[in-house]
Amino acid sequence: MPGGFDKNSTQAFENLEVGANCKIIVSIPGQPELVFTAETTRLLFENPDNREALAFEITEISEEMRELLKNFLFQCQLMNQ
Predict the structure, then answer these.
(1) Which of 30 and 53 is assigned the larger pLDDT?
(2) CA angle centred on 38, ends 75 and 51, rounded to 5°
(3) pLDDT of 2 above 60
(4) Which of 5, 8, 21, 66 is least surrounded, with the fewest CB atoms within 10 Å of its CB?
């Protein structure tokens, strides 16, 4: 990253750029932390919700974490029906 990583920033986009490799850690209540490595593919600076958004491609994930992610996404789908 051109300016280095700002650990005090609350804005994700100040620390990311397209093509950056990063470790993603997701806290899921009642489950172990979901951890994997990903490459940033798209950053959305402006959107209707005034939220930061990013898209990434998972580049490395263990089989255990893959199952945890699959189950988490399935539960999210069930809750949004």
Answers:
(1) 30
(2) 65
(3) no
(4) 8
Q: Cα separation of 41 and 38, whole Å?
A: 9
- Across 33-46, b (16+ Cβ under 10 Å) vs e yields ebebebebeebeee
pLDDT digits (tens, 9 = 90+) for 5-48: 555 555 556 667 889 898 999 888 888 999 999 999 988 766 66
Q: Which residue type is seen at 31? A: Q
Cβ atoms of residues 43 and 13 within 8 Å? yes
Sequence-distant (≥ 6) Cβ neighbours of residue 60 within 8 angstroms: 36, 37
DSSP 11: -
Distance CA 54, CA 39 (A): 10
Nearest to 19 by CA among 38, 2, 1, 41: 41
